[in-house]
Amino acid sequence: MVKKGGVAYRCAECGYEAAKWLGRCPECHAWGTLEERGSSRPAITRVAAGAPSAPARPIAEVDVETARARPTGVSELDRVLGGGLVPGAVVLLAGEPGVGKSTLLLEVAYQWAATVDRALYVTGEESAGQVRLRAERTGNVHQDMFLAAESDLAAILGHVDAVKPGVLIVDSVQTMASPQVEGSPGGVTQVRAVTSGLVALAKERGLPVVLVGHVTKDGSVAGPRVLEHLVDVVLQFEGDKHSTLRLVRGIKNRFGAADEIGCFELREDGIAGVPDPSGLFMSHTAEPVPGTAITVTVEGKRPLLGEVQALVSQSSMPQPRRAVSGLDSARVAMVLAVLEKRGGLKMGDKDVYVATVGGMKITEPAIDLAVVLALSSSIGDVALSPRLVSVGEVGLAGEVRRVPNVGRRLAEAARLGFTHALVPPDSGKLPSGIRVLEVGDVASALNAAGHAR
């Protein structure tokens, strides 16, 4: 506890108070987040009633037209946002450097200027000339797109007054600073102050604001945790530098589903949405290859077909190697143990490599059955049917458990030409056009996969 009248230091992440400065917060264990707050204030025990800014109304009389989303013109982004940008909403788009955040937002600014209203793009990381060159290269130049190179919050507000845009894009929030707050740009205090100022601007004028954010080494949004609480929508922009595929994943959304994804392809002439991305996550070979299995995962409301590849070989080392890419390594290790114990396959003296195709990352348990089939196919060196999909969670007893949205998954598989499916028992109403085989355990799944060839 802080002594009465003593100088208090408060953690910017969790609010913990200490009488002296500490390098690491004892509560949330974050480094460098304790800031001087002056003397501690006593807790408020009574609050006097004040005049409300507007009288309360029955909810049925509240006007909803001012809160309806407006499409940005980028359909894959609108899918994640829940239909588009809501007036007064603040969206935080975070991603690694070079992943394509600025390219995507230039496309948003262009589409907005061409179809809705003026768009103001403020950059603090590049000069206006550099942004103009990239806009010309990607074909995103419009007379109602306004560009400003600023790093001062007050100057941004001045540009908003002069331009009166329909959307404001700030690239990035870590490069902006407020003259009324101490600290360097990108620091905890400045990031919080700049974000609070832009949130207040958005709510006061009904102006949608899109903020670009940096990420840390572990992939989380850089800056204080309160940054994600201040904004209305948090989007994660993901992509492998060795692949052209980019994913916009919803993390927080006050206006729609928080687990949707949008798929994009980064090209030399810009970025384009991929409305049907299932083909990107599967390899295309003339003949079936042992060690591959097709599954259907669900991201938000979108079913996506993915391919799991496995390679099992005799190990020449005392400690066999296990390598996993695109999947949960702990879950793959569990499936290996179940396959050895319940499936009767020797795995302890073999090197095992398991990966997904196309840079796809799958964490849901519904792909366990596909991992089982891929591993057994590689051990036996026998290819599975190229028209077979499998969906199901594998338990420690070797049972195949039910997963949600089986009907939606199989409908997508049938649309793409798959004819057979292995699913858990009692999976509900299933679509026609695909032959469904219900399997209750790992042994029956291996047997059914062999007969489906």
Automatic annotation (TrEMBL):
Q: What is this protein called?
A: DNA repair protein RadA
Q: Which residues fall in a coiled-coil region?
A: none
Q: Which species does the entry assign this protein to?
A: Amycolatopsis samaneae
User: Cross-referenced PROSITE patterns, in alphabetical order?
Assistant: RECA_2
> For the region Lon-protease-like, what residue ranges are annotated?
351-453
Keyword Transcription regulation among UniProt keywords: no
InterPro entries tied to this protein: AAA+_ATPase, DNA_repair_RadA, P-loop_NTPase, RecA_ATP-bd, Ribosomal_Su5_D2-typ_SF, Ribsml_uS5_D2-typ_fold_subgr, Rubredoxin_2
Superkingdom per UniProt:
Bacteria
Q: Which family does it belong to?
A: Belongs to the RecA family. RadA subfamily.
* Domain-related comment: The middle region has homology to RecA with ATPase motifs including the RadA KNRFG motif, while the C-terminus is homologous to Lon protease.
Any Pfam family hit: Zn_ribbon_LapB
Keyword list (alphabetical) reads: ATP-binding, DNA damage, DNA repair, DNA-binding, Hydrolase, Metal-binding, Nucleotide-binding, Stress response, Zinc, Zinc-finger
Domain RecA family profile, first and last residues per copy = 66-215
Residue numbers covered by motif RadA KNRFG motif = 252-256
